[in-house]
């Protein structure tokens, strides 16, 4: 289990009208709750999993952006940890302001691939599926996309598991044959 909470931009910087900033870890809901103000006054800490909430990200008295905060509670998130995703405007300035604010409130910047690493370490995916995430991100054709999607959904893992079962069965048959051949002498 990871003891720290990480934050990072989950979309390419400055490449669209909307950006997603993800926070994951044991303090994700508390850190997000320190900066998110809902018009209804509801706290993100009390929000149900897989729900989206409109509000404003505030740095003290200064509004940084109006956002949609989506809450994913452990273990039913990508990382298997409590996670909050802020969908904000795609301005590089806004992205940087929000990330700096989250770090000041207790998160640390995630390393490249760390969300996927946590998903693997928390049993949300196996190594083959974790590697497929990179393949999916880098896919540039229908074929490479289809292959990565199949692998990410566990296709390769299921094939390996079936092969393992067949090998175990064959091994047990060989051991049985060896046991019987000892008794015949």
What would you say this structure looks like, in words?
There is one protein chain. With 185 residues, the chain is of the alpha+beta class. The protein contains six helices and seven strands. A seven-stranded mixed β-sheet has the order 3-4-5-6-2-1-7. Strand 4 and strand 5 form a beta hairpin. Helix 4 runs antiparallel to helix 5. The longest helix has 30 residues. It starts with 5 loop residues before the first strand and ends with a helix.
Structural Rg: 23 Å
> Reading side by side through the largest sheet, how are the strands ordered?
3-4-5-6-2-1-7
| Main pleated-sheet profile | 7 strands, mixed
**Structural category:** alpha+beta
On the 0-100 scale, what is the average pLDDT? Answer: 87
Number of helices in the DSSP assignment: 6
Q: Between the first and last Cα atoms, what is the distance in angstroms?
A: 55 Å
Low-confidence stretches: none
Question: Which of globular, elongated, flat, extended, rod-shaped describes the shape?
Answer: elongated
Number of strands: 7
Percentage of residues in DSSP E strands: 15-25%
Share of helix, binned: 40-55%
List the helices and strands and how they pair.
Elements: E1 6-9, E2 18-24, H1 28-35, E3 36-37, E4 51-59, E5 62-72, E6 83-89, H2 92-104, E7 108-109, H3 114-121, H4 127-138, H5 142-152, H6 155-184
Parallel strand pairs: 1-7
Antiparallel strand pairs: 1-2, 2-6, 3-4, 4-5, 5-6
Helix pairs in contact: 3-4, 4-5
């Amino acid at each position: 289990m990871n003891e720290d909470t990480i934050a990072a931009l989950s979309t390419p910087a400055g490449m669209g009208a909307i950006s997603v900033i993800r926070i994951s870890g044991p303090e994700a809901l508390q850190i997000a709750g320190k900066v998110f103000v809902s018009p209804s006054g509801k706290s993100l800490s009390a929000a149900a999993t897989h729900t989206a909430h409109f509000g404003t990200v505030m740095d003290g008295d200064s509004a940084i952006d109006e956002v949609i905060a989506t809450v994913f509670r452990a273990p039913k998130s990508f990382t298997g940890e409590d996670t909050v995703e802020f969908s904000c405007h795609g301005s590089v300035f806004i992205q940087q302001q929000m990330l700096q604010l989250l770090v000041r409130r207790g998160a640390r910047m995630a390393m490249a691939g760390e969300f996927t690493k946590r998903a693997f370490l928390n049993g949300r995916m196996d190594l083959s599926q974790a590697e497929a995430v990179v393949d999916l991100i880098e896919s540039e054709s229908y074929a490479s996309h289809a292959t990565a999607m199949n692998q990410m959904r566990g296709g390769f893992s299921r094939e390996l598991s079936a092969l393992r079962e067949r090998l175990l069965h064959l091994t047990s048959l060989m051991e049985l044959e060896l046991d019987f051949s000892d008794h015949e002498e």
